[in-house]
Design a protein that fits this description.
90 residues, two-stranded antiparallel ribbon, 4% strand
């Protein structure tokens, strides 16, 4: 495991993603999802929207690092808000 810089933010990120996946699994078992259409140009399930939100978050962080010297927590906050919008209305 020496190939990766395991800092506290890195570990927290992976713990957060794993926790979110576990919550999604429990949510799916308790309340099976239905395919629906939101503002995305395709019918999606909860898992689809979560995956799209994760991808959008990754791209937002890469873009933030490319164009800004500001703290990455700002990109994380924007990603959380975007993920909420995608999960709710996507």
């Amino acid at each position: 495991m020496n190939w990766m810089a395991w800092t506290l933010p890195t570990a927290l990120f992976f713990v957060a993603v794993a926790s979110a996946l576990l919550v999604m699994i429990v949510w799916e078992l308790r309340s099976p999802t239905l395919t629906r259409r939101g503002f995305l140009p395709m019918a999606t399930t909860r898992g689809d929207r979560f995956f799209i939100a994760l991808l959008a978050s990754a791209f937002a962080h890469i873009a933030w690092l490319a164009v800004s010297d500001g703290p990455v927590l700002i990109a994380s906050g924007l990603s959380l808000m975007g993920g909420f919008v995608l999960m709710r209305w996507g």
